[in-house]
Design brief:
The chain contains 14 helices and 18 strands. The strands form three sheets. The protein has an eight-stranded mixed β-sheet, covered by helices on one side. An eight-stranded mixed β-sheet has the order 8-9-7-12-13-16-14-15. It has a two-stranded antiparallel ribbon with strand order 10-11. The chain is α/β, with parallel strands linked by helices. It folds into two domains: 5-131 and 378-444, Rossmann fold (3-Layer(aba) Sandwich), CATH 3.40.50; 134-376, NAD(P)-binding Rossmann-like Domain (Rossmann fold, 3-Layer(aba) Sandwich).
Length: 445
């Protein structure tokens, strides 16, 4: 006999604009058609990109109370007071890096015997993520970074076509945003100085070429540009030709060990054996897009002392940092001391005083940092995410989540993403015990 199971889609928190959904209505209908033992609940939402009625028409029950659910799907983290004991949650929980500020929620998950499947940890055997929003974040992040650059230049007295870009949420979808960008691109082809740079190239460096970085590059490729390698940056900076330049930066471009090379094996064994070369590149860059994965066990790309020194000792050409990874307050780039939101995406940062001010001022760097970037393109992001997630739900539906042997009954990719189960950390995430105890001890003290 097939065991009945109830799956729920939780309403996202309203503290930040969030219209994405982990599953589309048609995907809910597909699951209900394939698995007659499944019941679907959907918590009503005024923001979600797909209306409550669309889920009702797909066969789901729209209701506030999700206590009947066995599995609860959502996107952003759930606050402690919103958790329901004993459930299985699929969510970006932000606990796997061991950051002290997120350890209390991890303890809540353990105390309340919640099974956590963290989307960020659904990976294949090679360690590549298979369920992600990264590409969508790259799309939205590049568009918002271009807009920040345009608005900065305009505010400082230099007209720029990029100031004509609208907030990403004002476009109905990515296609509409690209159509507008295409119009600006044509104007720039006719007059390269329309970018706001009349006497030298505008150099965009993309640090990190994973899903986020590739998404950012996808957008930039709609503009007239040329691509240069890291070793060419110094020469490019000396040019007097107005143009757009893209410089993709890999780990091998950004990191060096004591011998002055990037050693893959050495870096894997001891990341802090390498230092970042990014501060030495800053005087050649107009815009930096930070798309790297960061965790406390990794070296920072732009530490504050090196940022200050670079800003004081070299020409201040850097205008905007688009922090698409956005991991404040202690992330990979020192200027990202806070995260904005889709309605307030930028602030200015003084690398010398470390002071934050309103955008846009001379002598500062404008920072574009939003921790839910792809929420600005909720339809495109949800379509891509739901398509990736859908195949894994079949394994969860079939698994017996009440047993300690849950991991043996799941698809391997999902099993690798189970962080907590029945009040314990799984073996793969046992390393979190140390930061968990440390963080909780600090709270007690």
């Amino acid at each position: 006999m097939t065991t009945p199971i109830t799956i729920a889609i939780r309403r996202e928190n309203d503290r930040k604009f969030e219209a994405r959904t982990p599953l589309l209505p048609e995907q809910v209908a597909l699951i209900l058609a394939r698995f007659p033992q499944v019941t679907f609940l959907v918590q009503p939402s005024r923001l979600r990109a797909y209306a409550d009625a669309a889920y009702s028409n797909a066969g789901a029950t729209v209701k506030e109370d999700l206590s009947e659910a066995d599995i609860i799907l959502c996107i952003k983290e759930v606050y402690p007071e919103q958790l329901i004991d004993g459930k299985t949650y699929l969510v970006f929980a932000h606990v796997i890096k061991g950051q002290s500020g997120n350890m209390p929620i991890l303890q809540e998950l353990l105390d309340r015997r919640i099974t956590l499947v963290d989307y960020e940890s659904i990976v294949d055997e090679a360690g590549h993520r298979t369920v992600f929003f990264g590409r969508s974040a790259g799309h939205a992040g590049m568009l918002e970074t271009l807009r920040a650059l345009g608005n900065r230049l305009k505010s400082l007295g230099t007209p720029s076509m990029f100031s004509q870009l609208r907030p990403i949420y004002d476009y109905p979808d990515l296609a509409a945003a690209l159509a507008h960008l295409g119009e600006l691109a044509e104007a720039i082809r006719q007059n390269p100085t329309a970018t706001g740079f009349g006497h030298y190239p505008a150099v965009f460096a993309v640090a990190g070429l994973g899903n986020v970085g590739q998404g950012a590059i996808d957008i930039f490729q709609h503009l007239p540009h040329r691509i240069v390698a890291a070793g060419e940056l110094a020469n490019v900076a000396q040019s007097t030709e107005p143009s757009l330049v893209l410089c993709p930066l890999t780990k091998a471009d950004l990191l060096r060990n004591g011998a002055g090379i990037f050693d893959t094996a050495e870096y894997a064994a001891d990341p802090f054996s390498h230092r970042s070369l990014l501060p030495e590149m800053l005087n050649n860059l107009t815009v930096l897009l930070n798309c790297v994965f960061y965790a406390p066990h990794l070296p920072k790309l732009l530490p504050q002392p090196e940022f200050r020194a670079a800003w004081q000792d070299r020409p201040q050409r850097l205008q905007v940092v688009g922090d698409l990874s956005c991991d404040p307050p202690d992330g990979s780039v020192a200027c990202s001391v806070a995260a904005g939101d889709l309605h307030h995406p930028t602030f200015d940062y003084d690398p010398v005083t470390e002071q934050v001010s309103q955008s846009f001022e001379a002598g500062t760097v404008t920072v574009m940092a939003i921790d839910n970037l792809c929420a600005g393109l909720p339809v495109d992001a949800s379509v891509a995410f739901g398509t990736m997630l859908l195949p894994y739900l079949e394994g969860l539906i079939a698994a017996d989540r009440e047993k300690r042997g849950l991991l043996q009954g799941l698809p391997a990719d999902v099993a690798r993403a189970v962080v907590t189960h029945q009040g314990q950390l799984t073996e793969r995430f046992a390393y979190l015990e140390t930061p968990l105890r440390s963080a909780l001890a600090q709270i007690v003290d």
